[in-house]
């Protein structure tokens, strides 16, 4: 069972931050074979949506109020540990992220920069593609909006 909690950067413990960065690196750098700068100084502005199982972080997103990343509220760094994906934790953490934006920022319009291969996943959460495909860190992406 996934337990989800939300924290601002200043309330993350050193171990939580380490686990978050390790999970992001494991998936976005190693698994996806993509060299990019993950530590981007945006974590300090974000609320961190953290999913744990057996006291280990296995799912994560970060959310932003309008103006901190895009003009609209946004969700980024959506990640689930590879061996935990079969349990639907991606959908659970993403739903929590949408609800957190409504609760903390009172916003319903959300913009994301989605890896193109995950288009169907985000469409299942009522996001729609806007604009053309583009490369971000050499990976095909699309902008998507939920309103």
What attributes does this structure have?
3 helices, seven-stranded mixed sheet, globular, alpha+beta, 27% helix
SSE topology sketch:
Elements: E1 3-8, H1 14-31, E2 47-53, E3 56-64, E4 73-80, H2 89-105, E5 110-115, H3 119-123, E6 128-136, E7 139-146
Parallel strand pairs: 4-5
Antiparallel strand pairs: 1-2, 2-3, 3-4, 5-7, 6-7
Could you give a quick summary of the protein structure above?
The protein has helices at residues 14-31, 89-105, 119-123; strands at 3-8, 47-53, 56-64, 73-80, 110-115, 128-136, 139-146. The chain is an alpha+beta fold and 147 residues long.
Protein model, in words:
This protein has 147 residues and is an alpha+beta fold. The protein has helices at 14-31, 89-105, 119-123; strands at residues 3-8, 47-53, 56-64, 73-80, 110-115, 128-136, 139-146. It has a seven-stranded mixed beta sheet, with helices on both faces. The chain is globular and about 40 Å long.
Helix content: 25-40%
Estimated structural class: alpha+beta
The 3D shape can be described as globular
Q: Terminal Cα separation, in Å?
A: 30 Å
Which strand-content bin applies to the residues? 35-45%
Overall average residue pLDDT: 96
**Helix-strand topology string:** EHEEEHEHEE
The biggest beta sheet, please?
A: 7 strands, mixed
Q: What is the chains' assembly state?
A: single chain
Tally of extended strands? Answer: 7
What is the strand arrangement across the widest sheet? 1-2-3-4-5-7-6
SS field, number of helical segments: 3
Radius of gyration: 14 Å
Low-confidence region ranges: none
